[in-house]
Structure to design on (82 residues):
């Protein structure tokens, strides 16, 4: 399966982090936020006009700039919609 950038992933979906393309500094920041390869996350919002991407990791809401979210590749696992 082909993976997609977090910034392009659909909202309200369970996603699995498959790859992170960043330098060492950003890698440490992602790690401190709980964002690492193999982790399941949920994308909550994709704000318009180049605004941030909001994700949920372990019950925490994290806002990431689109250019930062584009460094994370994910796989869509399932929908949270009922």
């Amino acid at each position: 399966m082909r993976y997609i950038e977090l910034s392009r992933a659909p909202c309200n979906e369970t996603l699995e982090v498959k790859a992170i393309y960043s330098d060492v500094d950003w890698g440490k920041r992602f790690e401190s936020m709980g964002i690492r390869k193999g982790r399941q996350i949920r994308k909550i919002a994709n704000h318009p006009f180049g605004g941030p991407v909001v994700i949920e990791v372990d019950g925490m809401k994290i806002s990431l700039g689109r250019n930062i979210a584009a460094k994370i590749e994910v796989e869509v696992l399932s929908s949270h919609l009922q």
Observations:
- The first strand starts at residue 4 and ends at 5.
- Residues 4-79 form a domain with the SH3 type barrels. fold (CATH 2.30.30.90).
- The chain has a mean pLDDT of 89.
